[in-house]
Amino acid sequence: MSGDGKFDWAALMHAGFRQMGLTPAQFWALTPAELLMLLGRGTAAAPMGRRQLEALAARFPDKKSETAHD
Asked: What are the C-alpha distances in Å from 58 to residues 49, 50, 54, 66?
């Protein structure tokens, strides 16, 4: 994106077509957020770490169904 918050479509198309080798159909099928993420400019959250996973598992433990058969 440019400094004014607008997308620089020429630069994004150049990156998509020339640098990433996307076809026009592949490029236009992406959302702007997906394209920016592929270009390393996205703002995706960091993946869950071991501590967060363990805390989540402790908060929501697996429960065995009484009708389940092993």
From this structure: 14, 12, 6, 21
Q: Does the reported pTM lie above 0.90?
A: no
In the numeric block, which tokens belong to residue 61?
Answer: 């433990």
Per-residue pLDDT reduced to its tens digit, 3-49: 566 888 898 899 999 999 999 999 999 988 888 888 887 666 677 78
**Taking the CB of residue 27, how many other CB atoms lie within 10 A of it?**
15
Query: For the chain, what are the domain ranges?
Result: 9-59
Neighbours of 52 (CB within 10 A): 11
Query: How far apart are alpha carbons 43 and 51 in whole angstroms?
Result: 22
Amino acid at position 19, single letter: Q
